[in-house]
UniProtKB/TrEMBL annotation, chain A:
It comes from Bradyrhizobium agreste. Belongs to the ABC transporter superfamily. Keywords: ATP-binding, Cell membrane, Membrane, Nucleotide-binding, Repeat, Sugar transport, Translocase, Transport. Involved in beta-(1-->2)glucan export. Transmembrane domains (TMD) form a pore in the inner membrane and the ATP-binding domain (NBD) is responsible for energy generation. GO terms for molecular function: ATP binding. SMART domains: AAA. SUPFAM superfamilies: P-loop containing nucleoside triphosphate hydrolases. Residues 25-261, 262-512 form the ABC transporter domain. InterPro entries: AAA+_ATPase (IPR003593), ABC_carbohydrate_import_ATPase (IPR050107), ABC_transporter-like_ATP-bd (IPR003439), ABC_transporter-like_CS (IPR017871), P-loop_NTPase (IPR027417). Gene3D superfamilies: P-loop containing nucleotide triphosphate hydrolases. PANTHER family: CARBOHYDRATE TRANSPORT ATP-BINDING PROTEIN MG119-RELATED, D-ALLOSE IMPORT ATP-BINDING PROTEIN ALSA-RELATED. This is Sugar ABC transporter ATP-binding protein. It holds the Pfam family ABC_tran.
TrEMBL record, chain B:
Its main location: membrane. Signal peptide: none annotated. It is found in: Cell membrane. Keywords: Cell inner membrane, Cell membrane, Membrane, Transmembrane, Transmembrane helix, Transport. It is a multi-pass membrane protein. The keyword Ribosomal protein does not apply. This is ABC transporter permease. PANTHER family: ABC TRANSPORTER PERMEASE PROTEIN YPHD-RELATED (PTHR32196:SF21), ABC TRANSPORTER PERMEASE PROTEIN YPHD-RELATED-RELATED (PTHR32196). The chain crosses the membrane at residues 24-45, 57-76, 106-128, 175-196, 225-244, 264-294, 306-325. InterPro entries: ABC_transp_permease (IPR001851).
C-alpha cells in the first residue's frame, strides 16, 4: 500500500488501485493552543492520492502548527488524523516517517563531503557482515531509485558539487526511499531559480503519477497555480476553504489568504522628461556580468528580470558598492559614485534592501530599534555620541509608518516574522533619506498581505520623485511594480521592455 | 572543600535560573554569582570581609580587569586577542627603559611610550586581521610570540629595576585610601561603558559582531571598526603593563605570561558571547572580580595555587554552561 521503490511493482500497483477512491490523509478539527492562546482551531485538510495539495496562508495562519502536528513534532489538543482510513497519532517525526509521512524543509541538510548515494542511505547503509559498508549494493540501490524517479542526478557526485535543485531532488529521493507516501514540502523553491523550479516540478509530476501525494507550502502563488491540483486556505489559525485549483483564479486565492479584497497597486506613468537619477555606464564585473548600461529616472521603478545566475544580484551589489566593478561607472544625479564603498553610496542617497535579510540585511541578535537606526546613526549623532531621544523618536515613527508588529522596539529582530523583518530592513534604509532604493527580491519568503504593502510602498516612494531599482524572479511581481523592465540573460542586458505593455508570457520567454 | 565551593556556586546559579525574574535577570545573574562566592568566603574566613582585604582584592583584580575590558571590545566583534599578556610585557619594558634613561620629570614620556607601544601592536593586529584576512586567533597568536620575543631581545633577558619614585606611584600609590590601579580600573570601565553604550562606535562594534555583512550593507566601515577594537585592546594592554611594571618596581621580561587567558576568562564569565554581538562591560567587570575573589579568598584559606587553577577552570566552564542553559 505504501509506495515502495522498485521492490515489488505488481503488489504496489494493485494496492494503489484499490486505495484510489479513499483519501490518503484526512485531518479534521485539529486544534492547538500555546499557553492558552489558540494557534489553530478546526484545522482541516483532505489529501487525495496522486495530487499536489497547496496549503496557503499568511504568517500566523496556523500552517506551521498544522504541519508540525501532522509530522508528530507537536501534539494536538483536539481533532483526528487518518491515513488510509486508519487513525494515527504520531509522537515523533521518526514515527511519522514509519507511516510514510515525511517533510522536506527550507533548510536542507546534506552532508556536503559525501556522495549522493551515501547521503540517501545515511544511517542505514547496507552492510557486509554488519560491519563494512557494502558500497556496490548501496550504489545499485541508489541508481535504481533515481532511475525509477527519472531524476537526473550524478550518483557518485559529492553533495557540495550539486545545485540546490539537485540537492532537493536527492532529498525527495531519500524521502521516497523511506517508502514515504505523503511528502510535505515547505517553501521548496525559495532558494532556487526558475529553470531549477521546472526540474523540481517535473519530479513532482512523476511522484504524483505513482500515487503519492504532496502537501505544498509556498508564498509564490504563480507556482501554486502551475503545480497544485487542490488547495486549502488557513487564516488567523482557522480553516477557511478548500477546493480544486482549476476552479479559482489568483484574485480569489489572494482574497481568501488575506481576508479582504486587495486593491492592485496603481502604476502612474512617470513624467516624460523627468531628470535621470541613476546612470550606469558599461558596468562589468569579472565573470558575473558584462557591459551593462541602464538608467533610472526620478519617479521611475526599473525592474530587472532574469534567471538565477544571470548576474542580477551581483549587478545590484556592484552599483551599491559592495563589490568594486572591473570596468564601467555609476553616476547618481550626474556625478560619479565612488566604486566599492557602500558607506559613500548611502551618503550620496542610495539604500539597498538585500536579497537575504538574515545573511546580509539584519543583525538578528540586535533589537528592532538598533537595526532600524543602524544606517542613520551617524546622521543623528553629535561628535560620535548617539542622540538617544532623536533615535527613539525616529524608530518609533518608522515602526508606526510601516506597521511593524512587535511587543516593543527592544525585542530582538530574530523573533519577528519574515514580513516584519523585511519591514525593519526597509525602515533602516529609509532613515538615511535615500533617493534611490535598490531592492533585491524584496518579497522573498513573506506572506501575501505584506507583499502587497511593499508593492504599494515602492510605488508611493517612486511617485515622490525618487527612483527604485528592483530585482525579482517573480514575473507577476516585476510586471506589477515596474515602469520599465531590463531583462538579463547570462550576465548581459538582453533588452529593456515597457512594464505597462509586456505580458508575463513575453517576459518569461525573453529571459529563458 | 573545593567541591563545596563548586556546589555552592552551582546552587546559587541554579536558584536564579528557577526564579523567573525576566530578562533583567541576565545582567544580574553575574552579580548573584559574585555575591554567592563572596558570601562563601566571608563565612569561611573572618578576614575576608574587611575593608583592607577588599582594597587588596580590588587592586589584585585591576590589571586583569583593564586587560579584560580591552579584550571585551575585540570579542564583541567576534574576534579574539591572545597577545595582551605579551604586549603588556613589552609596553612595561619600554616604559621602564624610558624611566631609567631619562630623568624623572620624563615619567610622562614613559607613560606615553608604554601606551603607544600597546596601541601600535594593537593596530598591527587589527591591520593583519582586517586587511590580510588572517583569522584573529592566528594573528594574535603570532603577536603573542612576537611581542614576547621583542621583549626578550630588547631587555636581553634581564629585568630593568630601579624605577623612579613617581613612576612607582602608578602601581603603588593611592588617592584618599583608594589604590591608583583601582582608580584606573574604574576610570577605564566608565569610559569603556560610555563608549559602548552611548556612541555610534559602540553600536557599530555590536553590529559588526552580530552580522558583519549586514553592518557593511548598512554603511558601516566594518574594517576600521574591527581594527579599532584591536587598538583599544592593545592600548589597554599597554596601560596594564605600566601598572604591573610599576607595582613590581621592575620590568620583568617574563611578566604577564598567561594573563591573556585570565582576561578572556573574565570576559566569558561575564556573559559576552564568543560568537560576537552580545555582551557587556558590566559582565566583564564582575567576571574579573569573580576571578580576583576566588584567588584572594583561596589564598586567605591557604588553598594551594594548584587547586585555585582547578577551580578557576571549572568556574569558566560552569559559567558558559549556565549561559547556554538560559538560551
Amino acid at each position: 500500500m505504501l509506495l515502495s521503490t522498485g521492490a515489488d511493482p505488481e503488489g504496489r500497483d494493485e494496492d494503489a488501485f484499490e486505495a484510489r477512491d479513499e483519501p490518503l490523509l484526512v485531518a479534521e478539527g485539529i486544534a492547538k493552543s500555546f499557553n492558552g492562546v489558540p494557534a489553530l482551531r478546526g484545522g482541516r485538510l483532505v489529501l487525495k492520492r496522486g495530487t499536489v495539495h497547496a496549503l496557503c496562508g499568511g504568517n500566523g495562519a496556523g500552517k506551521s502548527t498544522f504541519l508540525n502536528i501532522v509530522m508528530g513534532l507537536l501534539h494536538r489538543d483536539e481533532g483526528s488524523i487518518r491515513i488510509d482510513g486508519v487513525p494515527v497519532d504520531f509522537r515523533s517525526a521518526a514515527e511519522a516517517l514509519r507511516h510514510g509521512v515525511t517533510i522536506i524543509t527550507q533548510e536542507l541538510s546534506p552532508v556536503p563531503e559525501m556522495t549522493v548515494a551515501e547521503n540517501i542511505y545515511l544511517g542505514r547503509e547496507p552492510k557486509i557482515g554488519g560491519l563494512v559498508v557494502d558500497f556496490p549494493k548501496m550504489r545499485r540501490a541508489a541508481k535504481q531509485l533515481l532511475d525509477d524517479l527519472e531524476f537526473d542526478v550524478p550518483l557518485t557526485a559529492r553533495m557540495r558539487d550539486l545545485s540546490l535543485a539537485q540537492i532537493q531532488l536527492v532529498e525527495i529521493a531519500k524521502a521516497l526511499s523511506h517508502r514515504a507516501d505523503i511528502v510535505i514540502m515547505d517553501e521548496p523553491t525559495s532558494a532556487i531559480g526558475e529553470h531549477e523550479v521546472h526540474i523540481l516540478f517535473n519530479a513532482l509530476k512523476r511522484i504524483k503519477a505513482r500515487g503519492s501525494a504532496i502537501i505544498y507550502v509556498s508564498h509564490k502563488l504563480t507556482e501554486i497555480f502551475e503545480i497544485a491540483d487542490e488547495y486549502t486556505v488557513f487564516r488567523d489559525g482557522r480553516y477557511i476553504e478548500s477546493g480544486a485549483i482549476s476552479a479559482i483564479d489568483r484574485n480569489h486565492l489572494v482574497t481568501q489568504i488575506v481576508g479582504h479584497e486587495i486593491k492592485t497597486v496603481e502604476k502612474g506613468r512617470p513624467n516624460e522628461g523627468a531628470p535621470i537619477l541613476l546612470e550606469v555606464r558599461s558596468l562589468s564585473r569579472g565573470p558575473h556580468f558584462k557591459n551593462i548600461s541602464v538608467t533610472v529616472a526620478a519617479g521611475e521603478v526599473l525592474g530587472i528580470y532574469g534567471l538565477l545566475g544571470s548576474g542580477r544580484t551581483e549587478f545590484l551589489e556592484t552599483i551599491y558598492g559592495i563589490h568594486a566593478p572591473t570596468a564601467g561607472d555609476v553616476f547618481l544625479d550626474g556625478k560619479k559614485v565612488d566604486p566599492g564603498n557602500p558607506k559613500k553610496c548611502i551618503q550620496r542617497g542610495m539604500a539597498m534592501v538585500p536579497e537575504d535579510r538574515k545573511e546580509t540585511g539584519l543583525v538578528l541578535c540586535a533589537s528592532i530599534a538598533h537595526n532600524i537606526a543602524l544606517s542613520s546613526l551617524a546622521l543623528r549623532a553629535v561628535s560620535g555620541f548617539v542622540r538617544r531621544k532623536a533615535e527613539a523618536a525616529a524608530t518609533d515613527q518608522m515602526m508606526r509608518l510601516h506597521r511593524i508588529k512587535a511587543a516593543s522596539p527592544n525585542v530582538a529582530v530574530e523573533t519577528l516574522s519574515g514580513g516584519n523583518q523585511q519591514k525593519v530592513v526597509f525602515a533602516r534604509c529609509l532613515l538615511t533619506n535615500p533617493r534611490l532604493l535598490i531592492c533585491d527580491e524584496p518579497t522573498r519568503g513573506i506572506d501575501e498581505g505584506s507583499k502587497q504593502e511593499i508593492y504599494a510602498f515602492l510605488r508611493e516612494f517612486a511617485a515622490k520623485g525618487n527612483g527604485v531599482l528592483v530585482v525579482s524572479s517573480e514575473a507577476p511581481e516585476i510586471l506589477q511594480i515596474s515602469d520599465r523592465i531590463a531583462v538579463f540573460r547570462q550576465g548581459r542586458l538582453d533588452r529593456v521592455v515597457d512594464g505597462h505593455e509586456t505580458t508575463q508570457q513575453m517576459l518569461t520567454d525573453l529571459a529563458s | 572543600m573545593v567541591a563545596n565551593i563548586i556546589s555552592n556556586v552551582a546552587t546559587g546559579a541554579r536558584s536564579k535560573g528557577i526564579a523567573a525574574v525576566g530578562p533583567y535577570l541576565k545582567s544580574f545573574s553575574i552579580v548573584i554569582v559574585f555575591v554567592v562566592i563572596s558570601a562563601f568566603f566571608a563565612v569561611a574566613n573572618e578576614y575576608f570581609m574587611t575593608w583592607l582585604n577588599w582594597v587588596n582584592l580590588l587592586r589584585q583584580s585591576s590589571i586583569n580587569g583593564v586587560l579584560a575590558i580591552g579584550v571585551t571590545f575585540v570579542i564583541l566583534t567576534k574576534g579574539i586577542d591572545l597577545s595582551v599578556g605579551s604586549v603588556m610585557a613589552l609596553a612595561g619594558m619600554i616604559a621602564a627603559s624610558l624611566v631609567t634613561s631619562t630623568n624623572q620629570q620624563f615619567v610622562l614620556w614613559a607613560i606615553l611610550g608604554g601606551l603607544g607601544t600597546g596601541a601600535a601592536l594593537g593596530l598591527l593586529n587589527g591591520v593583519i586581521v582586517t586587511s590580510f584576512n588572517v583569522p584573529p586567533f592566528v594573528a594574535t597568536l603570532g603577536m603573542l610570540s612576537m611581542a614576547r620575543g621583542l621583549t626578550l631581545i630588547f631587555s636581553e633577558g634581564r629585568p630593568i629595576p630601579n624605577l623612579s619614585e613617581s613612576f612607582r606611584w602608578i602601581g603603588g600609590g593611592s588617592v584618599a585610601g583608594v589604590p591608583v590601579p583601582v582608580l584606573i580600573l574604574f576610570l577605564v570601565f566608565a569610559i569603556g561603558w560610555v563608549v559602548l553604550s552611548y556612541t555610534t562606535f559602540g553600536r557599530y562594534v555590536y553590529a559588526v559582531g552580530g552580522n558583519d555583512k549586514a553592518a557593511r550593507t548598512s554603511g558601516i566601515s566594518t574594517r576600521s571598526v574591527i581594527a579599532s577594537t584591536y587598538v583599544i585592546s592593545g592600548l589597554l594592554a599597554g596601560l596594564a603593563g605600566l601598572v604591573l611594571t610599576s607595582r613590581t618596581t621592575a620590568a620583568l621580561p617574563q611578566a604577564g605570561i598567561g594573563y591573556e587567558l585570565d582576561a578572556i576568562a573574565a570576559v566569558v564569565i561575564g556573559g559576552t558571547s564568543l560568537a560576537g554581538g552580545r555582551g557587556s562591560l558590566v559582565g566583564t567587570l564582575f567576571g574579573a572580580l569573580i576571578i580576583g575573589t576566588i584567588n584572594n579568598g583561596m589564598d586567605l584559606m591557604g588553598v594551594s595555587s594548584y587547586y585555585q587553577q582547578l577551580l578557576k577552570g571549572a568556574i569558566i566552564v560552569v559559567a558558559v554552561m549556565l549561559d547556554q542553559f538560559r538560551k
